[in-house]
Amino acid sequence: MSDMDTINRNILRELQANGRISNLELAEKVGLSPSACLRRVQELERTGVIQGYRALVDRNAIGGGFLAYITVGLSQHTKAHQMAFEKAMQRAPEVRECHNVTGTIEYLLRVEVADLAAYKHFHTEVLGTVPQVSSITSYIVMGSPKDQRA
Amino acid sequence: MSDMDTINRNILRELQANGRISNLELAEKVGLSPSACLRRVQELERTGVIQGYRALVDRNAIGGGFLAYITVGLSQHTKAHQMAFEKAMQRAPEVRECHNVTGTIEYLLRVEVADLAAYKHFHTEVLGTVPQVSSITSYIVMGSPKDQRA
DNA sequence: TATACGGCGCAATGTGCTTGTGTTTTGGGG
DNA sequence: CCCCAAAACACAAGCACATTGCGCCGTATA
């Protein structure tokens, strides 16, 4: 296991801010030689601390300008029903995140679609056709004052 | 504006899956020469379609193993109060996302902390000290069957 | 103190990025 | 149907960077 010293924390912070920073620049920022820095990054990747790298794409530019969070309650809480629901969410491309949560409902979804019409389609044709869904509450995102998704 | 043809869509798809793919490999996957591919990527970056690159870090490895979504309702809906609340969220490092949403509440937060104790601290010391907060509902994430955050 | 070990810096090598240039393709008008 | 202009592409050279082997040093252990 790679120990979490200050240098590693700095490396992760820099890579979270800019995943494509060159190893040279990264090494300088954290105060290491390029080789030592690279070895630490590779170790972090190998041990799974760094799970991968993603490009951040503007949703509006690719027809995903409509964003909503949805809470979903199930009428039955058996493992089989949960698995069935989760499978359905896996298949739906509009669903970007599906969290199993505590509270008055069971699931919290993040849904990205092109527009309100597409959202209605998802709401009725996708969520509406999954059995055991007992409650659906939509929270349409009007803006995100803070968004550090990575 | 860079037009969204099939090649560009493929480029974005590949970069969302692997933000550090080499330009050579990316070019081969989308069926272009390396130079043409690089020019398209640069154009996408220049026009803001690609907003940046991030490393995906395992939260458990850096002491952020406790994840929750929180819905927040305000007692007053004036612009000044909203701004004050958003400012407070900007300052709180535990808050990774803050969405302004429609519905029975005003805000949806994504909060990442180390453990339940840290969560309690955030709940009482941070959220509890912001005026105009009238309702707080926590949805603690037990698992994420699907997570395509990027 | 001797020794083993882990982490680091240095240097050389290979790989990929990057840009200028010529070529091909595409679209509109004669 | 052909021609021309503009955009997109492939090719190649130069260069920067990633990558790896090696020796050094500082620390822990017996």
Automatic annotation (TrEMBL), chains A, B:
<dbReference type="InterPro" id="IPR011008">
    <property type="entry name" value="Dimeric_a/b-barrel"/>
</dbReference>
<dbReference type="GO" id="GO:0006524">
    <property type="term" value="P:alanine catabolic process"/>
</dbReference>
<protein>
    <submittedName>
        <fullName>AsnC family transcriptional regulator</fullName>
    </submittedName>
</protein>
<dbReference type="GO" id="GO:0006355">
    <property type="term" value="P:regulation of DNA-templated transcription"/>
</dbReference>
<dbReference type="GO" id="GO:0005829">
    <property type="term" value="C:cytosol"/>
</dbReference>
<dbReference type="GO" id="GO:0043201">
    <property type="term" value="P:response to L-leucine"/>
</dbReference>
<dbReference type="Pfam" id="PF01037">
    <property type="entry name" value="AsnC_trans_reg"/>
</dbReference>
<dbReference type="InterPro" id="IPR019885">
    <property type="entry name" value="Tscrpt_reg_HTH_AsnC-type_CS"/>
</dbReference>
<keyword id="KW-0804">Transcription</keyword>
<keyword id="KW-0010">Activator</keyword>
<dbReference type="InterPro" id="IPR036388">
    <property type="entry name" value="WH-like_DNA-bd_sf"/>
</dbReference>
<dbReference type="InterPro" id="IPR036390">
    <property type="entry name" value="WH_DNA-bd_sf"/>
</dbReference>
<dbReference type="GO" id="GO:0043565">
    <property type="term" value="F:sequence-specific DNA binding"/>
</dbReference>
<keyword id="KW-0238">DNA-binding</keyword>
<dbReference type="Pfam" id="PF13412">
    <property type="entry name" value="HTH_24"/>
</dbReference>
<dbReference type="InterPro" id="IPR000485">
    <property type="entry name" value="AsnC-type_HTH_dom"/>
</dbReference>
<feature type="domain" description="HTH asnC-type">
    <location>
        <begin position="4"/>
        <end position="75"/>
    </location>
</feature>
<dbReference type="InterPro" id="IPR019887">
    <property type="entry name" value="Tscrpt_reg_AsnC/Lrp_C"/>
</dbReference>
<dbReference type="InterPro" id="IPR011991">
    <property type="entry name" value="ArsR-like_HTH"/>
</dbReference>
<keyword id="KW-0805">Transcription regulation</keyword>
<dbReference type="InterPro" id="IPR019888">
    <property type="entry name" value="Tscrpt_reg_AsnC-like"/>
</dbReference>
